Every structure is written in C-alpha cells, then in structure tokens.
Amino acid sequence: MKPIHVGLLGIGTVGGGTFAVLARNAEEIARRAGRPIVITAVADKNLERAREVVGTAAGVRITDDAMSVVDDPAIDIVVELIGGYGFAKDAVLRAIANGKHVVTANKALLAVHGNEIFAAAQQKGVMVAFEAAVAGGIPIIKAVREGLTANRIEWIAGIINGTTNYILSTMRDSGRPFADVLADAQALGYAEADPTWDIEGVDAAHKITLLSAIAFGTPVQFEQAHIEGISQLAAEDIRYAEELGYRIKLLGITKRVAGGIELRVHPALVPAKRLIANVEGVMNAVLVKGDAVGATLYYGRGAGAEPTGSAVIADLVDVTRLHTADPEHRVPHLAFRADQLENTPVVPMSEVESAYYLRLRVQDKPGVLADVARILADNAISIEAMIQKNAAQKEPGEGGGEADIILLTHITREQHADAAIARIEELATTVGRVTRLRLESLAS
Fold first, then answer.
1. Where along the chain do its domains lie?
2. How many helices (H) and strands (E) does the chain have?
3. How many CA atoms lie within 13 A of 340 on its CB side?
4. pLDDT exceeds 60 at position 149
5. For 4-137+305-335, CATH number?
6. Is 249 exposed, middle or buried (CB count within 10 Å of its CB: 0-12, 13-18, 19+)?
7. Close Cβ partners of 326 (under 8 Å, ≥ 6 residues apart)
8. 3-state DSSP call for residue 414?
C-alpha cells in the first residue's frame, strides 16, 4: 500500500527521537497503521544536526526552509516540533490551509492559539493531533478523550512538569534551598538555561489548559488559568509539610464545580500516602476522576527524546488510519463535537475552596496564637492541625525570640483565607509575610 509521507519540522531532541523510533520500529508501526509511515522531508535551521540525525536514510530531503516542506504536495502529514508561538503558528495554519494533517508537541501553541487552529482544521476537514503536547510519553490525551468517554469527568490533577518535580524531590531529600537545586537541574540538563516557564508554572498551565478543554468540552482558556510557580518555595516548608504527613508537588488542577470549572497551577500539599505524592524526580503522573470509573492514575516519562517521540508516532498512526475517513467520523480535537463545546466559565480564584497550610513567623510571647486563632475564626476558618517551631533566637536581655507557627486549616474559600492572612500580617507580633500553600487531598 502507498506509504504516508511525513514532513518533519524541527529535528532537535524530540524530532531526533521521533526519527529514531520510527526508523527502528518501521515494520511494527506499518503493521499497526496499515501502511508504511515514511519521513521524506526534514526541515531544521541546523542543517549539520539534521544530516547527522538522518544519517544514511534513503529518500529524505533535508532543508532549512520549513515552508517548502509545508507546501510540498507530496507531504501528507506535517509534524511540527519547532515550538513557540510565532513561526510554528504560521507553519501549522499554512499546512492546514494546504489540506495537510498536523501532528504537534507544541502545548504552548495550542493552549494560546488552539481555538483558531482547531477551527481552521475543522473547516478544511483535516486533523490536528497533539498527544505529545501533554506529559510526554504518557497517553493521557487519548485516555481522557477516548478511553474515558463514557464518564462525566469530575477533576484532573497532575504532576505535568518534570523539571519542577525534580527540584521539589531533591529539595525534600537534601534539605537544600531552591536556588541551589535549580542550578543542579540546569547542570544535569533537566532545566533550561532560562527555566522561567517551568519554575513559574507556565508550562504546566499550558498542559492543564488542554486537558481541561478535553475533559469538560470547552474551548481552550489559557488566559483564564491561575498560575503560581515554585521559585518562592522555602526548604523549611517542604520539611514542615513532611512532618505533617504531606509532600509538596506542583500540580495542574482542573475541576468541575457548581459555578463552572477551576483551572489552576500551584504548589500544593498532597497526603504522603497518595500514590501521586510518591512520584519523584523528572517523572510525571496524572490523576483523572470520572463518575463511573473513579480515580485513575497515569504515570511515566513526561519528557525526553524517545518517550515524547513515542507519542508523536502514536499520533502519526492514528492520523494514518483515519487519513481517508469522513471527517465526521473522526474523534473531535477536543473530545466533543465542535458544535457541542460549551463556554463554561472559569471560576475566579477567590471563589475556589481548599484547605490551607499557613506558616507565620511571630514573636514568641503569650497571646499570639490566641490572636491568630481569633482572626481565623472571624473569617470562618477552623484549624485542623498546628505545630510550633523555634525560629531566630534573640540576644540575652532582648526578650523572647521568634517562632514559626504552622497551621493546617479545614476547607474554606480562598477569599476568606486572603482576608485572614491580611489581618494576621497586620499584627504587631507577626514578623514578615505569611506563607500560604493549598492542600489537595485528591481523594477518590
């Protein structure tokens, strides 16, 4: 049977992994797809690297002009692995306009411009597949979009950024501060030279935005996501959380609630007994709660050349199988038919309900804890657990020293927590700012 011809844009880490796996497993992949899948054109600005990866493979055109691949009438599927919003967006939209299917690992592009791209693909009757855009080699897009299609999804919570998970795991194991561990992660290649998107939660927000749209049948709404990173996280908070039976993870969370959906990324305390709390290093894991199936956990490598390349090739196989199918009979991009997507609002963070971890440094004198408890009670917040630790001791004759008070609260609304924290920080006995982290039980 006539092969499917693929044009590969970008042959860096993921592109190289895709090329290698496809070449190594070509026969097995063809048996699954029903016809051979062949990369016949590669575009990359670094021609020397491209030639090194392609090697002696026959029939592969190498160019530094990506648009020449996009416009090549012999190409059936364009694989976009360039990244970013600019040229990648132009290339994807032009491929669609040319009637070509697209496979991409570009979560940033789809989180920000996905609505435009999916609409263009719908109009042209072509597919945009993006399994590799979320959690690398873990088939989480297919699981939510197809495997759990009988379920009303209730919530998704995931460790979907390996860089931050490595940093948090190492901080917990070593007790070292964030800046030192980040430097190690960069030296090991786990963090980029500019790690901002990872450590500030943007990368995870791109991914949870896509999962949210698929889970709840909404357009992508990245601009509505609440995003917090881990750069301000202190080593003592990781230590105190451990003492209380929790581990701190950067979570992407989306949840169906009465007022709409929650869409948020932030560090959170997770009970240590949960499987997801024990996901360490650069590994990823995603919990999905459906009404029929309950909680399901998906675990694996969230990045890397061949794991992500595996997801790219899975998309190539899917597109190949459905290449000639009636567009109406294909799985919709966002799981729900385009005319059935709902503009469900994203709930403001002030309305989100959660339990909280609060750490406050105070002057170690009588009545301080009573003042704090009174403020919490005034804001309808009850305390579940408390520990007190000596902090900085003063010199003899200067009176009492300072103490860290660590509180776990019961579930309350974010606006109540905000109000209570503001009042606590105004107390004359409070030293500095209150540290606030959310607590997610992730109970099934």
1. 4-137+305-335, 140-301, 353-439
2. 15, 17
3. 9
4. yes
5. 3.40.50.720
6. buried
7. none
8. helix
Query: What Å distances lie between residue 88 and 108, 113, 195, 251, CA to CA?
Result: 10, 11, 21, 27
Find out whether 175 and 194 touch, Cβ atoms under 8 Å. no
Statement: residue 30 has pLDDT above 70: yes
C-alpha to C-alpha distances, 317 to 67, 77, 279, 340, nearest whole angstrom: 24, 11, 30, 27
Q: Which overall architecture, per CATH, does domain 140-301 show?
A: 2-Layer Sandwich (3.30)
Q: Is 51 exposed, middle or buried (0-12, 13-18, 19+ CB in 10 A)?
A: middle
pLDDT (mean) for 122-150:
96
pLDDT tens, 306-348?
A: 999 999 999 999 999 998 788 888 999 999 999 999 999 999 9
142 is catalytic: no
Strands of 128-129's sheet, edge to edge?
61-63, 37-43, 4-9, 77-80, 101-104, 128-129
Q: How many CB atoms lie within 10 A of CB 391?
A: 16
Provide, rounded to the nearest whole percent, the portion of the chain with pLDDT above 90: 94
Within 8 A by CB and 6+ apart from 339, the residues are: none
Q: What class, spelled out in words, does domain 353-439 have in CATH?
A: alpha beta
In the set 100, 107, 142, 207, the catalytic residue is: 207
CB 357 within 8 A of CB 439: yes
- In whole angstroms, what is the distance from residue 433 CA to residue 359 CA? 9
Q: Quick count: other Cβ atoms within 10 Å of Cβ 183?
A: 12
